[in-house]
Design a protein that fits this description.
Elements lengths: L1 H6 L3 H12 L12 E3 L2 E3 L2 H25 L10 H7 L15 H10 L13 H6 L1 H17 L1
Antiparallel strand pairs: 1-2
Helix pairs in contact: 5-7
């Protein structure tokens, strides 16, 4: 196994392939098998889901009731919008993406691994590198146009 990883060009993928093979792709069951609520045990998955749902929805009711009880008659209870506005004091700055130069596009193409494999466009990195000088200007124009529109 160690030799297989050392010889591999993609060590991470090879490591995970070995782990999958050794574990026989068996997935452990992580669901809750049994739950005790109000001194009774339940194994029914729907009852377990309902118990969790009831618990978490009751927390909201308790928190809301607690907030109301802690306010005097003269105090206004803050609303959802109040908290949003409180955290939104400064509007976000506009997103600015700088345009590319042909030099940057050329260096990106040169940095790609040379492979014969291709994606959906059926253009390999080998073909991109071979044609880089011819396609660099049009490719830069397309990239910059897609950013600006």
């Amino acid at each position: 196994m160690t030799k297989k990883i050392q010889k591999s060009s993609n060590k991470c993928k090879t490591s995970w392939d070995i782990i999958k093979k050794l574990s026989n792709n068996q997935h452990s069951q992580t669901g809750i098998q049994e739950l005790m609520t109000d001194s009774k045990h339940t194994k029914d998955q729907q009852d377990i889901a309902d118990a969790f749902n009831n618990y978490f929805t009751s927390i909201i009711d308790k928190i809301s009731q607690n907030n109301v009880n802690n306010k005097t008659n003269n105090e206004k209870i803050p609303t959802f919008h109040y908290y949003l506005e409180l955290n939104y004091v400064h509007p976000p700055s506009s997103l600015v993406i700088k345009t590319f130069s042909t030099k940057e596009i050329t260096s990106i193409i040169k940095a790609l691994k040379t492979k014969n494999s291709h994606g959906f466009d059926e253009i390999s990195t080998k073909l991109l590198k071979i044609s880089a000088t011819s396609i660099c200007s049009p490719l830069t124009y397309i990239c910059n146009k897609s950013i600006s529109s």
